[in-house]
Write a structure and sequence with these properties.
- The protein is mainly beta and 358 residues long.
- It is 4% helix and 49% strand.
- A hairpin with a 3-residue loop joins β7 and β8.
- It is built from 3 helices and 30 strands.
- The protein has one domain: YVTN repeat-like/Quinoprotein amine dehydrogenase (Methylamine Dehydrogenase, Chain H, 7 Propeller), CATH 2.130.10.
- The radius of gyration is 18 Å and the shape is globular.
- The strands form 8 sheets. It has a 4-stranded antiparallel β-sheet. A 4-stranded antiparallel β-sheet has the order 5-7-8-9, with no helix packed on it. It has a 4-stranded antiparallel β-sheet with strand order 10-11-12-13, with no helix packed on it.
């Protein structure tokens, strides 16, 4: 069983965030390495050794493909990797935005072969402790916690970075006073931002102006979009609890429609995914499902796996569970959608997410 420790919030920040795939996330098409799974390895914070691996369709694992393709390492710890395409709502990603901290930057690459297109760094503090990424129109938006020394105090200095994705250049910082912005998605020509230090979701229009605040439960963390284009916000447990909640928002009315209580989920860095009308969550090294129609919560995997990274292949429903080893290669388990172990692989340091080339 994975040993559990009590960390301060500041230390917990050093853990990366899972890249959760939703129906709205463009996924890469078959690229240079064929069909398979891009493995996001966060890296060790002090060593800044985040990396990307690739599991090929024949189960061969290729390590450090970013460094192979570009001749240099990523040079930070990877918070998330997001695929995008500026061509009118294409479901196929042709570019990646790799979000890193401890070397605050956004690395833009081709999705086909991971060749670097450009890098936006945070030397002028236009990016500072970045978290998540979304695309609206021809612009990219990155949530930032700002100065980590203030992020968990009474007055966080969070902000959202706005980027021109055609030129991949910085436009401006959108302040979020006294808020730690976390998850972000775009739908219906608006941005929805989970304000982790509050009980609210902020809604921005396509010019980046705040137009509404939606009350949800405490500690909203990540946002998924289901097949009916409804938003599902995972809200983390209150102190002393191991159960949070899911709140459904209609992005066409910006009203909450449903709240599901007592959802097992971690107290920090939630691991969630959506597949076939169910949201999968991770709590205490077990996987649970929440049926979005019946609202039934069920234990799905009770093997007590050590789970740091989590993802579901949207094509076949296979689950990928990554361990969080930060001193050696992390073990990755691939399970079928009935929970049967299919195969194990070795990833990199601190495997925290997956993208799927189908």
């Amino acid at each position: 069983m994975k040993k559990m420790f009590r960390f301060s919030y500041v230390i917990l920040f050093l853990a990366g965030l899972l890249t959760a795939c939703t129906p709205s996330d463009p996924q890469p098409n078959i690229g240079k390495y064929g069909k398979g799974v891009l493995v996001v390895n966060e890296g060790n914070f002090s060593e800044k050794n985040g990396s990307l691996s690739f599991i090929k369709e024949n189960n061969e694992v290729i390590s450090d493909i970013f460094q192979t393709e570009n001749g240099v390492a990523i040079g930070g710890i990877i918070q998330s990797v997001k695929g995008y395409n500026l061509s009118n709502f294409s479901s196929v990603a042709d570019k990646f935005a790799i979000i890193t901290n401890n070397t605050d930057q956004v690395i833009f690459t081709e999705a086909n072969d991971l060749k670097v297109v450009s890098v936006l760094d945070g030397s002028a503090k236009q990016i500072e402790n970045p978290q998540a990424f979304a695309v609206l129109g021809n612009k990219g938006y990155i949530t930032n916690w700002g100065d980590i020394g203030k992020a968990f105090g009474a007055n966080p200095e969070g902000f959202i970075t706005e980027i021109d994705l055609q030129t991949r250049t910085f436009i401006r910082k959108i302040p979020t006073p006294n808020i730690r912005p976390q998850g972000i998605v775009a739908i219906n020509n608006k941005l929805y931002v989970a304000n982790n230090s509050t009980n609210t979701i902020s809604v921005y229009n396509n010019t980046g102006s705040l137009i509404q605040t939606i009350i949800v439960a405490n500690n909203p963390d990540k946002i998924l979009i289901d097949n009916q284009n409804k938003l599902w916000v995972i809200c983390l447990p209150n102190f002393g609890s191991d159960k949070g909640s899911l709140v459904r928002i209609n992005p066409f009315t910006d009203q909450t429609e449903l709240s599901i209580a007592d959802v097992p989920v971690g107290s920090f860095n939630s691991k969630i995914a959506l597949y076939n009308n169910k949201i999968y969550t991770v709590s205490k090294n077990k996987v649970y499902t929440v049926d979005l129609t019946s609202q039934l919560i069920a234990e799905f995997i009770s093997n007590d796996y050590s789970i740091y990274g989590f993802g579901i292949n949207p094509q076949n429903g296979d689950l990928y569970l990554g361990e969080g080893s930060f001193s050696q290669a992390s073990r990755i388990r691939r399970l079928s959608n009935d929970g049967t172990l299919i195969r194990e692989y070795l990833g990199g340091i601190g495997t925290n997410g997956f993208l799927f080339y189908n």
